[in-house]
Amino acid sequence: MPLIEVRNLCREYSGRQVLKDLSFDVQNGEICVLVGPNGAGKTTLLRMLDLLDEPTTGRILFDGKEIDYSADDKVAMRRRIGMVFQQTVLFNMNVFDNVAYGLTVKNEDKRSVEKKVKTALELVQLRNFESKNALTLSGGEAQRVALAQALVTEPELLLLDEPTANLDPRNVSIFEEALLRVNRERKTTMIMATHNMFQAQNVAHRVAVLNEGRIERIGTFQEVFGMPSKFLVDFARLENVFSGVSKITGEGTSLIDVGNGLKIEAAFEKTGDITVFVRPEDVILSVNPIVSSARNSFEGRIVEVSDMGRIVKLKIKAGRDFRVQITKRSFNEMQLNVDSKVFLVFKASAVQPV
Amino acid sequence: MGTALVESVFSIDSEVLNVVLLSLKVSGTAVLIGALIGVPIGMVLGLKQFSGKQIVMRFVDLTLRSIINTFMGLPPVVVGLVVYLLLAGSGPLGPLGLLYTPTAMMMTQLIMVIPIIIGVTMSAVGSVEKTIREKALSLGATEGQAAWTVLSEARMGLLTAVIVAFGAAISEVGGIMITGGNIRWFTRTLTTAIVQEVNLGDFNRAITLGVILLLMAFATNLALTIIQLRGPKR
Fold it and tell me: pTM for the complete prediction?
C-alpha cells in the first residue's frame, strides 16, 4: 500500500513552473531516491511533503488521506514526518538538547527522552557526544546529529534533501548505514534527493529521475540506468562512451570501429554511426590475458587512479581511454598502480547503445 | 608639561568621577529603557514574514524598515534640537520643567538608541528566522515554539544590539549638549566636559577625559568582539 501518493502536483514561483504535473507513489517501507540536476524540483517536492511549502495545484495523499495545506495546525502531520536538510542546521545548544528537540516540543517525559536520544545517537555512531556544543562539531558529525534529530521521533516518513552532499566518504557510509538500518528495522519510508549515483545504487529500492519539474523515469536502479536516455548520459556522466561506425558481423552481433584501432563487439545488429557505452562496473580487469566467453579483450595501461573509499576508479589507456571501477580490495590484491599493464575484458552484451 | 599631563591623567578627582558616573547613568538608563522598547519591536519585525500575496502588508513592511534604517543614522544634534523644542518653556512639554536636566539628556539618547536597537535586533532575528524556523517546524514544533527557538538562537544578536547602542550613546555629544546644557556637577558628561575643557584651553584635562572615554568605548567593543567570536558561526 502506498504511503505517499502524489497526484498532478504543480508548483509555480512568480511565473516559473518548478514542478509540472508530477504524479507518483511511494510504497510503505520503501526507499525512493530522487535524482536530477540542480533546479529539477527535488527540494521543492520534499518541502511540500514536509508541509513547508504548498502546491499551486494538485494534491498529495499521506497514508490515504489528502494533506490539507490550508489547515492552521500542521503540527500533527509534521510530527509523522522527519526531514534532513542539505544545509546542516543545528541549534546553539549541546548535542543532547539538539537531538531531544523533537521530543521536548511534544512534552515527552524525561526518562523516555533520555533513552530515545541515546538510541538515536548510537544509530549515527555518535555515542558520548551528548554534552558537546553542537556548533563545534565537524561538518560530518553535525549532519549525523541532524539525522539523529529527525530519527529520534521515529517518523513514518523520512525526507532527505541531498543530506550527504558535503560529507567525506567515511561520514557518507556511516550516514547510509544508519538509513538502511532504520529502514530495515523500523520499516521507515524514505524519500531522498541526491546527485550521487553510487548513493542511489547503494540505498534505493526505486529511483525517480527528476528533470525540469517532471519525472523522466522511475523504477529500480537497473531499470532506470540500464537503458539511459541522452539526458541521463549527460546528467549521470556516463563513462566509456564511444562513437563509431558499426557493421553487422553475424547473427546478433556487430563490430564497432571507434578509432585508434579499437574495435568493440556488441550483441546487437546495427549498421552506421552509433554511440555506445560500457558501464565501468561491467569491465573485468586482469593482470594476465584470460580465456573467457567475453568477446572483448584489450590490453592497456593504467594512467590514473582515484580512491573513492571502498572502491577505486581507474583510467586505462587501451587505444581509447576506459574508466573501470573495482573494489579497493581487488586493487590491493592485484598490486596495481599507475603504469601497470592490465587486460580489459567485457561481454558483447555489456556494450549498450545510448 | 609631560609630567603635568601624566599627573593629570592619573588624578581622577571627584569632579571627573561625577562626570563619569553621570555619563554611565544617562547612557545606561537610555539603553536599558531603549532595549525594553526596541528589542520586542525588533523581534516582532524580524519574525514577521509577509507573504507575497499581501501587497499592502509588504508595502507597510518595506516602508517601516526604511524608516527604521533612516532613523538608525539619525544625527544626534537633530534629536537634541527636537527634544529641546519639546521641553523648552513654550514647547508642549515645557510645563514639566525637564529642560537642562539629566532626564532630558536621557530622553534625547533614548530617541537616538531605539532605532539602533530595533534595527540590529531585527536583522539578528531575521538572519536566523528562515532556517531555524523551518528546522524547528520540521522537528514538530508549533509556530509558537518555533518562534521561541528563533529568538533564543538570535540571543547573541540581541546582546550585540544593546552593546552597539551603548557605544553610540556614551560617545554622543551634540544632542545632550543642547538638552542638558552642560551644567557643572549636574548635566556635564564626559563628552560635553571634553568640549568645555577644549574651549577653555585646558588640554591636559580634556585628554584625561578623552582617555577615560576611549577606555570605556574600548571595553564596550571588547565585550562585543568576545560575543561575536563566541557566537554561532552562521
Answer: 0.72
